[in-house]
Amino acid sequence: VIVAQGWEAGGHVRGTIANLALIPRVVDEVAPLPVVAAGAIADGRGLAAVLALGAQAAWIGTRFLAAEEAVTHPYYQDRVLAAEASDTYYSTLYDVGWPDAPHRVLRNITIDAWERAGRPPSGSRPGEGEVIVTAGKDDQVVRYESVAPRKDYEGDVEAMPLWAGQGVGLVRRRQSAAEIIAEIVAEAKSVIAGLAQN
């Protein structure tokens, strides 16, 4: 199985090509291996689209941040539910523990402070090394660390990397994972059936 991740994806993103151009190219190059498309797929329309591009499946991340079963911190879930695609930010800023790894997050106070300081390099950024959240006495996260906000974290969760893809604007409510899957599948079937009729 090959995972083809478009530039629109949330979290760590190595590529620079959007799914519309990437998926068909990867499908052609690796056939007959199955391709799983990733990046900004958050509903049945997105699933239908990547299937039409030749992928055999979709890897969906951002939508499941709002799943009731997720270990996502409630503040993080609230930010995801309120966000639009234009609220995402692509950089290598959150590099502690994962240097030089491009990623997409929701804009937050850490990004704003870094930009106000003139975008200094690692080693001279505002608040660098500062513990921003904890989970018990042994689990501490420092500013710029590449760690997702979990339910058990206490402190300045807003300063952490709030991973999210550009499909975030399609995520509008908390649901169970089963409801999310059922909704995506039903919508994809409807879209595909509608296209077949036209």
* Strands ordered across the widest β-sheet: 1-3-4
Query: Could you say which overall geometry the principal axes of the C-alpha atoms support?
Result: globular
Strand content: 15-25%
Total count of strands: 9
Report how far apart the termini are.
32 Å
Give start-end ranges of low-pLDDT stretches. Answer: none
Averaged pLDDT: 96
Q: Helices and strands, in N-to-C order?
A: EEHEHEHEEHEEEH
Q: Count of helices? A: 5
CA-based gyration radius: 18 Å
**Helix content, binned percent:** 25-40%
Give the biggest beta sheet: 3 strands, parallel
Q: Which class of secondary structure composition applies to the elements?
A: alpha/beta
In words, what does this structure look like?
The protein is an alpha/beta fold and 198 residues long. Helix 2 (44-52) packs across helix 5 (177-197). The model has no long low-confidence stretch (mean pLDDT 96). The two termini are 32 Å apart. Helices cover 30% and strands 16% of the residues. The protein has a three-stranded parallel beta sheet, with helices on one face. A hairpin with a 3-residue loop joins strand 7 and strand 8 (139-142).
Outline the secondary-structure elements.
Blueprint lengths: L1 E4 L5 E2 L6 H12 L4 E4 L5 H9 L4 E3 L14 H9 L5 E4 L11 E4 L2 H8 L14 E5 L3 E4 L11 E2 L21 H21 L1
Helix pairs in contact: 2-5
